[in-house]
Design brief:
Blueprint (H helix, E strand, L loop, with lengths): L5 E6 L13 H18 L8 H4 L1 E10 L8 E11 L3 E10 L5 E13 L4 E2 L4 H11 L4
Antiparallel strand pairs: 1-3, 2-5, 3-4, 4-5, 5-6
Amino acid sequence: MAEFRFSIPLETRYGDLDPQWHLNNARFLTFFEHARMAYLVHLGLWDGKDFFKLGLIVADVHVSYLAPVEIFHKCRVDLRVARLGNKSMTFEYRLVDEDDGTLYATAETVMVSYDYYTRKSIPIPAEWREKIKAFEGLSD
């Protein structure tokens, strides 16, 4: 399995918790989404402003919750693109404790390249494909 070449630090906040004082299950998805957006900005694929230029929608998501995350835990999300298809790509994620390495969750999202104006899926832009392949060390 390829290494994770992109990570982003996060810290759990009071508002992220559920009534059991654990990171709410939906917040895991928010953390992964935040990491995905930071990845796209890091690779120069999105300016962080025009969402209609972004052109990605979630087609499928899976999360495996492995350990509870509590308030003020310093975590990081590791992210990689594991697969590039014609119109879709698969992102893989890990939520890890920054201090002791506890693996809190793993996840996968299938993202579809999308034209918001025509409301149709489109091939992944060549620029995106080349930048992702170069960053991730993917081959054809």
